[in-house]
Each structure stands twice: as structure tokens, then as C-alpha cells.
Amino acid sequence: MRHSDNGKLPKKAALSAVLCLLLMVTLICSGCKAVIDKQNAATEAPAEEVTEAAIEATEAPSADPLNFVKPTIPDDGTDGYTSGTDSGVFIYKNMAFELCGASDSAAEDYASAISAFKKSAPEFTVYNMVVPTHTEFGLPDRVAADTYTASQLQNIKKVYSSYTEDVKPINCYNKLGEHINDYIYFNTDHHWTGLGAYYAYQAFCEQTNQTPLQLSDCTENKKEGFHGTFYDTASDLNPDTVYYWTFPYKTHAMRQEESGMDLYEMELYYEYIEDSGSLYSTFICGDSSLFIEYNDDNKNGKKIAVVKESYGNAFSPYLTYNYEEVHVIDSRYFSGSLKDYMTENGINEIIFVNNTMSSNNPFMVDGIRAIY
Q: Is 187:96 a contact under the CB 8 Å cutoff?
């Protein structure tokens, strides 16, 4: 190519040079973009994995005992009414609900009582599970607001956040909340059903890294015509059905009616009750000072104590799948030292099981303190 005298390229040559220059720039930019895209791909892939892991974590709230998820209760505009015979009972859609009284101070007092036991017996693994009642999962927010019933979610969360770190809270709230359309509470009684107790047992197993018993491996039984404690509070309530499951392994039990009395042999479920108002006592024959459950086919040596009120009756039998012995102690009737009893019987795990009405009741909390 020949230069002009003034140092400028001829027009055709200049145009060719410009086109070549543009082509080079394009190729360089394309190469840079490819490198940048490759680098971005390398850095973005791990980010997607982290995001997926985070999503999985939020989709499994039961993994975190302080992560509570309140389910949405369907509301079709139906109104309820306060029972004419018991102002603490609310009737809604042919179901009776016990209105919950709870406070932060009561929650803190209960947490303090459990923490004090752990402090007095640091050698034991201590779990605590506060169980929400039917009101929390049966009344829509609009209806619940009109009844002035307390938020059990907030109250249980207050209990769990007030422990010392060495007490292990068990969150059954979320597991029950996932099954609000199942028959997990009685409609004429203040207790949960055997199915509700099973879901809480599942939550316990998940949070203690144990494999739960599968109901599909069990035999379902039922007792119809249960008239619960609220059956007579309204005329439009229908009788309940008590469901319970017998297990695919051999069990037996020993029962002590009152502290100091002799133990006598029983079964986990007392199937001979016929009184319509007492059918909840199918579970471990109702309340007593001590009820010991044995898995005759499991010799793993594991033992656990369950300190409870009557909600624990439907819950404790499932534990026989995971433990050779389950010692069920009712804090209202047991006397003596809980710590000494556990030591003498080689028990190193304990779970406190109380519903929110009990955990907010100062007399119940004082009863727990009394058996230290």
C-alpha cells in the first residue's frame, strides 16, 4: 500500500483499514465475553447450590425448634359462640374449643423450672415439648381475635427462647400445623388424638435423629362414641372416636396407681373401658403416678423418662419403638426425687410433655419443681 504525500491513506485503503479494525475489535470483544461468561458460569454454579440448600432448609421448619410456621386456617365467614354452660369454651362448627390463657411471665416461669432441673442434673439429656391445643389450629384468625384467646405460637416460642442452652426444645407445633386437616384433636374434649400425638412423636424423632415408627406397620383400632369433657357444653356436638395403634412388636407395662403402691402388670392400651366419657383413658389406662412401658423385642438398653400431664398418655407409647424402657411419670401424682428415680433405674434421657394450658398454669409448674 502506497502512502500519500500528506500522510493520509487513499479513500479505498482507508475504508479497508477501518473495516479490518472493526473486525479485530469484534473478535477481541467476543473473546473477552467468552472468558467473562466462562468465569461467571464458574462462580454462579455454587451460588445456585447454596440457594437450593437454603430453600430446603426453609422448607423443613421442624429442623429448627425456634422457627415456628403458623398455618392458615380456612375461614368461610362462619361465626361461633361462647358456651352457655362454660365461659371458657367456644363453640365453632360443631366443635368445642378451650380458650387459651397464657402470658410471657408464665412462659418464662415454666422455662425456668425446666432449666433448674437440668442445672440440678447436668448428667441427663433434657428435652421439653410444649403442645399447642386445638384452639391454635382450629379457629381462623378472625374468630380467634374475637375470643381473645392467647397466641400459643408466641407463648411456646417464649418458653423455648427462655431456656438455658443445655435444654433441648422439641418443636411439635410445625408438624401438627402441617396436618390441620387431619383428625389430630378431639372435637368434644381438650386432648389431642392418638394421631396428633403420633405427629408430635415424629417431630421428636426428627429432632433427635431417630427413626420413627411407621403407622402403616401397625394395626389401627378404634373406640366410637367418645363424649369428651366439653360434650355437654353445647347441644350441637357430635361424639368423637378414639383411634389407637397396636405395634408390630411385643410390649407390656407396669402401673403404679399412687406413689408408694405396688406396681401391677398392664398393657399399653386399656381396651376394656366402656364409659363414653372415659375413653381417652384407653391410652395407658389414664393418669397415674408411674407407668413403665417395655418393648420386649428391643434390647438396645435405651431408657427415657416422660414427665407429663394427660397429653403425655397418648404420646408415650410410640417411644417404645426407640427405647427398651419408657418411664412415664405424672408430675401431679408422683412423689419423691425425680433425679434419684432416674439414677436408680439407669435412665439418662428425659422429656417434659405439657400442653400450653398446663405450661402456663403455676400450680402445674410448682408440681414439676416439687419432684426435683
A: yes
